Structures
1.
Amino acid sequence: MVSLKREREVDLDDDDNEDGVAAKVGRGHAVEDRRSRHCPYLDTINRSVLDFDFEKLCSISLSHINVYACLICGKYFQGREDITYVLKPTFTKQHIAGLDKQGKLYRAYDGTTYLPGIVGLNNIKANDYANVVLQAFSNVPPLRNYFLEEENYRGIRRPPGDIMFLLVQRFGELMRKLWNPRNFKAHVSPHEMLQAVVLCSKKNFQITKQGDAVDFMTWFLNALHGALGGTKKKPSIITKAFQGYMRIFSKKLPHPDLPPEEKEALLTTDEYQEQMSESSFLFLTLDLPTAPLYKDEKEQLIIPQVPLFNILAKFNGSTEKEYKTYKENFLKRFQLTKLPPYLIFCIKRFTKNNFFVEKNPTIVNFPITNVDLREYLTEEAQATEKNTTYDLIANVVHDGKPTEGAYRIHVLHHGTGKWYEMQDLQVTDILPQMITLSEAYIQIWKRQESNDGRNNHMGI
């Protein structure tokens, strides 16, 4: 009899462990179910009415957006009120069309005020190099308007097993969060976007390791273009906004160790004659003059300054530059044939040698508005291009050492005409005169419209 009672107690303990319920069985004590203390509503769940095989549609509005199931009655309902706009923000065409015309401040749920689009991004560990690029592109109106409306890219077909379209989806979600006027807080975490970047780039760009903003921007633009179905001949929103064209004149040089007679003989052959080719570009790389090696009388390095138009002379069609490869040397010159609506400048500050990465601290002096690029076009292009004047809308800055520095960005808010500086979660307004004193690394310029020449974005 005693052994039978012990077997029953063991069976009770086994059943309780299988159900995940901590039970205490003893002489004169009842079985205690601790689930009710953890969640007092678990006993109200009616499993007999739950059927998840039906289509997930709201029983009231017949919508499939933000649908949840009631575990008591088994019906489906749609999320309501402000939570739905934070979980999945949506924008109408009228709202998107008026984004650049309003400068209204919105109040978040935590009480802070913010401008939609001028929102800080969380630096998880060392992803500020990606944050500034994402913030810059979120303030390019054609790119922003395209991704704010999910219908623009939802129907794009991709081959089975392709993961690159995840980049498009996550970038669209991030764009809608940045421009959401009903956010709960005045900053956004790009965690899902960066996870997609790590996956799609095969860990070339990571959250925990500092990267180069230009390298990330180059990969990101080409990855988005391909994921949106774009090719060399088929355009996408990326090429429509940023792609321009240039002519490249290239001439092969003889090896410098050859005797003069042999050099002259080689220069007469067809191989060493100047060749011309047409090429497209998404951004222009501007080369800085070499930084000084010697210190001044106060034992401090002199920080040189150079005007923007001096480094733009690379594309005037007459300035030649030598490019060296492992085996051959070439002399090249460039001239633009078509300017895009939005022009990206990448100022080459970092050079790599066999030992380390060196940063050029030269300050580039540039105007904020009315930069005319007509003189860098061919004669045929000058006759066809109507507007060649550009205004600055975004300026990415790198501060500090090459491998240990930090990134920040200056962004123009089109609705107010004011400039803002964003560094991770910090957002502050800034005078336009202070922008030109920074070590600019990436710049995005917007071409003026025909009747936009009188606009002043100086913020004064």
2.
Amino acid sequence: MCSSEVSHLHVFNEVSHLHVYSAVSHLHVFNEVSHLHVSHLHVYSEVSHLHVFNEVSHLHVYNEVSHLHVYNEVSHLHVFNEVSHLHVFNEVSHLHVFNEVSHLHVYNEVSHLHVYNEVSHLHVFNEVSHLHVFSAVSHLHVFNEVSHLHVFNEVSHLLVYSEVSHLHVSHLHVYSEVSPLHVYSEVSHLHVSHLHVYSEVSHLLVYSEEKDLVPKLFKVLAPRFENQLKGYTRMARLPVRMNLDRAKMVALEYKGNPFPRLSPVRKENELTLVNQLLKAYREERQELLAARA
């Protein structure tokens, strides 16, 4: 083999080595580019993951702010965010408001809107890969899911506001119930004070009447019944008025009073048959007794 051929082979080998090196370099560069693409996709998926997480965090902060706003606006209303059933406790009426309310489905299993694994509209974090997230981002699916979260947040806020309005109404209702009781107690106190005043006036009237009756007792009634051996009073039954008096009524009067009697005095009539027979019997008996003597 001549030197020219050897040089050609050496050049060919060098070219082959260069070609192989360039091919390897191209492959390496391609691999690097592929890694860069993959890393770019990974970074983009991480950014979208962070973006979705930031959106959820903003919604979570918005819900926290809404709860704080509700807590500041509503007096005597403690909205316990830690409780999954959302016990809205009213200190006035002690109402446990809608523990399992159908109008306020805040997902009892989820507290503070943890919409990561349970919610069917956000299967993005655990069940979906980062590339799928990227494809979802490319199709604006994640944007739609975030809009669903916004709608859900708005509906929840409106429902909480409506519940707060109902609590205001119930508070006013309890206050309106307490007010008549307070007024009734005031009226009762007025009635009691009125009865107390009336009893005081009655006591004074009775005392004055008793004081007036003392001289009448010793100056009028005592001399009148001084020689009385029987009762001092007379009772007369009053006629019953039609459809007015259900019970029998009587009147009590002192005997020997200067006024006319309530019941007229019945005079004995000797012309009746019984009286005539009794009169004849008495006369015959007197005659027999006189004859025996």
3.
Amino acid sequence: MAPMPIRDDGHVLSQDWAVPARDLTTVAVSHPFSSPPGAPSPHPGFRRRIPPLASRRRRCHSPEPFEERCRMERIPIVENGREISHLAVRFDPPPQGTGERPCFLYLHGFGSEQSGEKAEFFRARAREAGFGFCSFDFQGHGLSGGDMLGLTLTRNLEDMARVHTFLRDRGCGRLILLGSSMGGGTALWYSSLHPEEIVAGLHIAPALELAKGLLAWAGPERARLWEETGRIHFQNEFVSTELGWTLIEDLRAHLTETLLTRYRTPALLIQGKLDTSVSWKSVAEFATCCTFKEIEVHLFADGDHRLTDRKERLWVLMMEFLQGRALI
């Protein structure tokens, strides 16, 4: 297979793979969509499970040429006049003649990236329905710069703000946020800060208790060492990386009680009861305790964390929610 093509104008034509988990191999991440010379290398020490070459194949959800569908744009992150990182963004503008419809902004989960199966499915459905669709990789993930060691909720919110500015500049400032896990939790906080521009939130297993989950994973002794040393090695079936204690400190600074009183955006929260990463009770508690009442919860009693096996049903639920509340 030919290497990932890069255009002279800096766009990267990314590739999307669809293979069973048993065909995945753990390798060090390496890609050409990197930070400029002198900037920190993207995701040092970060390892992710990707398909071996023989297993890679492209998925096609639309009749458009592959090169047109997979064009990435690069948002530089500059500090003191020097680029220190970047965000990889893919924006599919709304079709002409569809009016002033809001744009979907997809937010991936912890250790994931914007080219996942659900994201590509929702992109295709949104475009078929006449909406613009944007996705990006949070820093430390996918084709963006930065590393997981510096991951915090605050950094994620700053990444979202940069992408929102990018979309405003293209006439798409009104957003429907579509978040998965960590992306859903980040989106809830972002909505509370920018309620005037967020039309709705559609979130799958929003991670509202990420700090609690990480500390439970670490256990008391390793959590103590994590705090003392400032870092810990995290590994699950998807990623193997270093996480900083600043992630826990930052999450603790974002009090759920504050979010419950500030949140003002209509939201559909979709959750699986068999989810071992995000407690369905935490999602239900947020919906029932929030002072804003335009929040619906859909619980799949037999659903897992990802809910990828029922993505068609997820899209139907989302459209019913948006249309039923006259949000689109």
